[in-house]
Design brief:
CATH class of chain C: Mainly Alpha
Distance between the termini of chain B: 51 Å
Structural class of chain C: mainly alpha
Largest sheet of chain C: none
Order of helices and strands of chain C: HHHH
Number of strands of chain C: 0
Number of strands of chain B: 0
Shape of chain B: globular
Largest sheet of chain B: none
Order of helices and strands of chain B: HHHHHHHH
CATH architecture of chain C: Orthogonal Bundle
Radius of gyration of chain C: 20 Å
Strand content of chain B: under 5%
Distance between the termini of chain C: 50 Å
CATH topology of chain C: Helix Hairpins
Number of domains of chain C: 1
Helix content of chain C: over 70%
Oligomer: heterotrimer
Chains: A mainly alpha, B mainly alpha, C mainly alpha
Helix content of chain B: over 70%
Chain lengths: ~150, ~190, ~110
């Protein structure tokens, strides 16, 4: 990405990134876990989580981001998300059928309510976040090992 | 709805700049303005879930597209369209536009949706799913098959990207894979 | 009606870019514009004048009138599918650039031989 010897961007960008990336990740987790009460949900929260890691990667270069979440780690997380989602759907067969909402509904406006919807939100966010993060790192580092170094 | 019309005009201008700009990087930036305008339009149309998703997804799309356009040796003046191609494209677009106008007149008036199916979703969402966000209860409870199919498409796209951008693998294997792909396409 | 027509104009801009441009990135941009127009059309159909967002409030606050939540759910999935397919198209375009050294589809056809 950058033509400097030092990987990543300037000191200003790095300092600001160090301050904000945790807040972005926290906001993504908030959007995911409150997806059944407020706007947001698994898709938006997953993309926010992926974007926080992409932010880290763009500011510090690839090595720091890979230390946080490696490519195989992203693949494992995506597989866990997919299996969790399908697993929740299959457990519903024990009651009525595929994707049956088998957990107690709880009282509305509580964080722990709405049965399987928060669990599905977490599964979807894992899947979307890890999948899009691996897509972005695959595209951004496409030519690193190629003939021409950029 | 005056502000919505202004916003739509801004989006159309951004899209035109993106389509006609000489420099690919400015085209990508212009498509970013169109997408962010779309996010504000969703917010004005009372769709906050879609607005948040569109906002973050647009940022990611711009990051990916900028990576594709920043490289050395890219010609600064891109190839011109052939005049005949432009004429044919404009003719097709004109026919499409004129054919779509009667269709737009036949659908319900703006601001008065037909809520035949979603009425039952709205009425049952407290009792049946316990969620207070109706959109979340629709995508993850009533219509979870949609989300399952979406997850399948996303998984396929991720596997496709990782297969296309794969670094390891010998040359012969790559050629063999290409031949197999062409054979499958035939 | 005017809003629908503007949305259609946006769609036509995207289709025009797909049909007339020779640059692969421009074709991808046209697809993105057309996709934006389709998503916007769904949300426009769902809108109710004076309606509220489809999120419940504690009981004393009335929820009606409400915009139609079903197209919102459909568009939510369509947006994520859109970013995934866009990423796939960009990856293919970059591979093509690496192999042929150009984004011009006419020259790619010549070079293929």
């Amino acid at each position: 990405m950058s033509k400097e010897r030092q990987p990543g961007m300037t000191l200003i960008v790095k300092t600001v990134t160090r301050l904000t990336v945790g807040l972005i990740l926290l906001y993504g987790i908030y959007v995911v876990t409150h997806g059944h009460l407020t706007p947001g949900g698994g898709f938006a929260g997953g993309v926010v989580i992926a974007l926080s890691l992409v932010h880290l990667m763009l500011a510090f270069g690839g090595d720091v981001a890979f230390k946080t979440l490696s490519k195989s780690g992203a693949a494992v997380l995506e597989a866990i998300g997919a299996l969790l989602f399908v697993g929740i759907a299959i457990i519903g067969f024990g009651w009525a059928g595929f994707f049956f909402n088998f957990l107690p509904k709880g009282t509305p406006f509580d964080l722990f309510s709405a049965g399987i919807i928060p669990l599905c939100n977490i599964a979807i966010s894992l899947k979307v976040g890890a999948g899009l993060f691996s897509v972005v790192i695959a595209i951004v580092f496409l030519r690193v090992a190629g003939s021409e170094r950029e | 709805m005056f502000i919505l019309i202004v916003l739509l005009g801004l989006m159309i201008m951004g899209a035109l700049v993106a389509v006609e700009a000489k420099n690919l990087l400015s085209a990508v930036i212009a498509i970013g303005t169109a997408g962010l305008g779309l996010s504000i339009a969703f917010l004005l149309l009372k769709a906050p879930d879609v607005a948040i998703t569109q906002l973050v997804v647009e940022i990611m799309a711009v990051v990916i597209l900028i990576r594709a356009t920043i490289r050395q040796g890219l010609p600064s003046s891109p190839m011109d369209s052939r005049p005949l191609g432009v004429v044919i494209a404009l003719g097709f677009v004109a026919v499409l536009f004129l054919a779509a106008i009667p269709v737009l007149e036949s659908i319900p008036e703006f601001g008065d949706p037909v809520m035949r199916v979603s009425r039952s979703y709205v009425d049952g969402t407290w009792r049946l799913s316990g969620s207070t966000n109706v959109v979340a209860s629709v995508i993850l409870d009533y219509r979870a098959y949609d989300t399952l199919g979406e997850a399948t498409v996303l998984f396929t796209a991720v596997v496709g990207v990782l297969a296309v951008t794969r670094l390891s693998g010998r040359r012969e294997q790559k050629d063999g894979a290409q031949e197999a792909e062409q054979g499958a396409g035939r | 009606m005017a809003v629908y027509v503007l949305c259609l104009v946006l769609f036509c801009v995207g289709i025009y870019a797909i049909l007339s441009k020779r640059n692969l990135i421009k074709i991808i941009i046209g697809l993105i514009v057309a996709e934006h127009a389709v998503n916007l059309f769904f949300i426009l159909v769902a809108y109710r004048i004076g309606g509220r967002a489809p999120i419940f409030e504690p009981p004393p606050v009335s929820i009606e009138p409400m915009v139609d939540p079903l197209p919102h759910a459909l568009v939510l999935t369509a947006i994520v599918i859109g970013i995934a397919t866009t990423a796939f198209m960009v990856a293919l375009a970059m591979r093509i650039y690496e192999k042929y050294g150009t984004y011009d589809i006419a020259r790619i056809r010549e070079l293929r031989g």
